[in-house]
Amino acid sequence: MANIKSAKKRVLVTETRTARNKAIKSKVKTCIKKVETAVANGDKETAAAELTVAITEISKAANKGIYHKNNAARKVSRLTKLVNSIA
Predict the structure, then answer these.
(1) pLDDT by residue (tens digit) across 6-31?
(2) Spatial separation of the C-alpha atoms in residues 44 and 8, rounded to whole Å
């Protein structure tokens, strides 16, 4: 553990941010899984609805700096392509 007061504060802030980032990443992954599950079941309406939610969550995460903008764009693109592949 750090001895300097500012270093102790940084440790606390880092722990807080890490927990926040982990929660947001987990939320994004859950949304992605819901879209993939709907596609696997062949349910286009549910997949489209879940895609909208997933895009929103991914965009929020990118705006907060959890994902790089190109990474977020790639995730959105792949999910959209997946949903559009349903006949």
Answers:
(1) 999 999 999 999 999 999 999 999 99
(2) 51
Assigned token pair, 8: 């102790």
The tokens describing 15, both together, are 């722990």
Burial annotation 14-29 (CB, 10 A radius, 16+ → b, else e): eeeeeeeeeebeeebe
SS (H, E, C) the chain: CCCCHHHHHHHHHHHHHHHHHHHHHHHHHHHHHHHHHHHHHCCHHHHHHHHHHHHHHHHHHHHCCCCCHHHHHHHHHHHHHHHHCCC
The stretch 23-42 carries a mean pLDDT of: 97
For residue 14, give the nearest of 33, 27, 1 by alpha carbon.
Answer: 1
Mean pLDDT, the chain, integer: 95
Q: State the pTM of this model.
A: 0.88
Rounded Cα distance between 24 and 34, Å, is 16
